[in-house]
Amino acid sequence: MTDVLDLTALEAHEAMVAGDLGAEEYTAAWREAAAGDELNAYLWRDQGGEEAAAIAVERDCVAPIAVKDIFTTEGVPTTAGSRILEGYRPPYTSTAVRKLLEAGAPVLGKTNMDEFAMGSSNENSAYGPVLNPWDRERVPGGSSGGSAAVVAGGLAPWAIGTDTGGSIRQPAAFCGIVGLKPTYGAISRYGMIAFASSLDQCGPLTRTVSDAALLLGVLQGKDPCDSTSVGIDGGIALPGREDLSGLRFGVPAELRGDDYDSGVRAVFEQTLRKIEDLGGEIAEVSLPSSEHGISAYYVIAPAEASSNLARYDGVRYGMRAGGDGDLIEMYETTRSEGFGPEVKRRIMLGTYALSSGYYEAYYGQAQKVRTRIAEDFSGAFGSVDFVVTPTAPSVAFKLGEKTDDPLAMYLNDFFTVPMSLAGIPAISIPAGLAEPEGGGPQLPVGFQIASPAFSEQKLLDAAYALEQGIGFGARPGGVAGA
Amino acid sequence: MPELEAVIGLEIHVQLATKTKMFCGCELSFGDEPNVHTCPVCLAHPGVLPVPNEQAIRYALQIGLALGCEIAPRSIFHRKNYFYPDNPKAYQISQYDIPICGAGRLGDIRIHRAHLEEDAAKTIHVGESGRIHGSDASLVDFNRGGTPLVEIVTEPDLRSAAEAAEWARLLRETVRQLGVSDVNMEEGSLRVDANVSVRPVGSEELGTKTELKNMNSFRFLQRGVEAELARQRELVEAGGTVEQETLHFDPASGSLTSLRSKEEAHDYRYFPEPDLVPLVPTEEMLREARESLPELPAARIERYEGIGVPADVALTLATDPRTAGYFENVVEVADGIEPRVIANWVTGELAAALRQAEVDGGAADSRVSPEAMAALVRMVGEKKISHGSAKTVLAALVLEGGDPEPIVEREGLAQMSDSGELEAIVEKAMADNPDAVAKVREGNNKAVGAIVGAVMRETKGRADGGEVNRLIQEKL
Questions:
Q1: Inter-CA distances, B320 with A181, B59, B314, B458, Å
Q2: Are A251 and A220 in contact (CB under 8 A)?
Q3: Does B312 touch chain A if contact means CB atoms closer than 8 Å?
Q4: So what's the ipTM on this one?
Q5: Residues 151-170 of chain A whose Cβ lies under 8 A from any Cβ of chain B
Q6: What domains can you pick out in chain B, each with its CATH number?
Q7: Which domains, and CATH codes, for chain A?
Q8: What pLDDT digit, counting tens, does each position of A346-394 carry?
Q9: What pTM was estimated for this model as a whole?
């Protein structure tokens, strides 16, 4: 038999159910692989213990999993990539991780991320950037960069992350794996450290669409601890669709501009032809408000973040600095030293946007745009089954390339933010390789498919058929199976 | 200078007596060890989410309906952002532009709104002052943090400190009778802030207001508002202007100190709480809330006044629903006796007899059955016993229960009517008090009291005063 690390999570699961693979052996192999992390992708790794040996194979999914360090895990350090939570061990476990544990998937490690999920390159982590396994001089994307890197880099069979404006899909694209952002409300947010509450959503980062489906099936569901959770009616089955006949894929005219990488464009156009080969139909749709997505997003998300991050005040847990008897000074010193520059930038943006006298002009206006964008998608889904775009305007860029230009960094989310604002599901699958602008070895390009709220099953079925049709088999050099 | 009138509005925070907190499963408590009723949610650990307490929503609906408020079919929670150690999330979940309860009225005072929110934790400032300024350290007890609150805001309809205190009492009684709060001002389960301003009589415009905090009794509320009104009047009459500020009333010294000025006012940066879905009361919740409403003080006062009960007695009954129920039971079996008379007996002599006997509980729990009470009042009305004798009978009924008639008989309290016996006693009393008789004859009617007194002593109060007087006049 092949190296167990080459198996997808689903294949490993099936092998264990069939008795061809021991859960203990499998988990140990992954633990060993994770120990060889050279990408700075893990912030904490499970050292193994008795509990890991007791995994029951008849559970739903038994492959150990890498968890973005934004999910609380009782007694296990949880930092959200921030200095302000250094050494913090939560007193409770998030619903997503609890569900994984109940399903038989132990936590392999906690993955590095942009501080409080704010970033598109993982360079905003207080614990140093994650390196892209395809090219260690490049970023893995963000904010779930660690989760994407461990899956692509052969350091975990699969992972979960969070997506607020593209934070699962964009790193999945940069690392050549599958990333799914489910419908807002599909998976409980309880225990998922909040960045922008009305947008944050947990989702899988996996090698294959089938693994993503398996994971979503375990994670989804209404949670009494999250009033905004609803779950997916009927659950999620493994995808099995062979072709795309009878399905219509809409390409938004507004998102088809020529201001993004030609390599990405070539892969995108080539994927559209593949869809047609598989029997699908390509149509043009209009999402007139979507080009304002970034503007609206960078008001709404910072506004919510400014409030969500106000609790890190040094009083009850986490870092405390300064003060010496003065409350206000303690607040200021703790937050000045505890937060990184991008987090501070967004807290200031958001505080401003919510201020008396500016609320309507910024937050109020952004919410109107958000409503329009959601209406645009509803309109489009009247004539097509899916909306498709490139996942990101470029392939993985170089470390440090955009750190001095926040706006250029924000534009990375151009294709992913509209779906987040509309609350609809979207998946990124690896569609091919392209040379970066400026030359260099070829890097993965993601293809994004979005569908109406709670239509994840249909989305996964179509993505699966396309995945099979594309047959993307490339893996970074030096990784098992490459 | 035109005369100035007081314009007062109240903001009342009512802690709801639910089992658990507003957004988590921690038990409510008072006086327990600090920080034993806490969890990741009410300590605002990273990643937690609020889940609304359904019982609190039901209680808020009851309060809203009791105050005649319009209930919003869909209200939303907002975040009120500010930093303070008693506010662990650094925002309070409250309601802003769409509260659960809209406009209403209690008595003559219009209600502006009532909304749901969560209470802050308690900060304890260690040091001599007991306040944050000059304290050595501050400790936080999160037991109270997250307790469900309903904040009731009135329109500025109150015109004096006394009226404000009186209305606040009616509100407390109303909420108390709903059974949704302990409404204990000292323990802080009922907290009243007052917005106070003055304006020339006849003006429709509102003057600049100040907000008074920390008045933890109705007496202090009245004194605090009085002090602030006096301050504002003096200021305005001297040609000055009132500055908008928040004031702290110190009941010990009667002084007002500024907590913060308008410039220091917070910008709370309200925005809709994204962690909660809109609050939409179901038909079933509304129906249950409606059906659970008892008859409330304001309605009871109106009804009692309608059957001739004097206003002050009606108020006494309305603040004590069990005694009011007893009163109604007596009226029911009293067959035609005026409710006014019964109300006076129940709230007057019966209450006094219960106090005298140191009996726990009110009339409704006493040994005096409504039938016995009705029979006793009837006997007085029919002049079968005197008022004084009736008090004696009542004292016995309170202790032993049963019917009044056997007690009257046993104690020999049957009233003497115009029988020869009474006449003889009157004659003897006049003979024994010739001075008094002479004075009365000279036109000094007060002197008749001495003769009546002698008759009453002789008859042990069984004689009817009116009849005695008549007989004396006859014999003069």
A1: 60, 21, 10, 40
A2: no
A3: no
A4: 0.95
A5: none
A6: 4-291 (no CATH), 295-411 (no CATH), 420-475 (1.10.10)
A7: 4-288+373-470 (3.90.1300.10), 290-372 (no CATH)
A8: 999 999 999 989 999 999 999 999 999 999 999 999 999 999 999 999 9
A9: 0.89
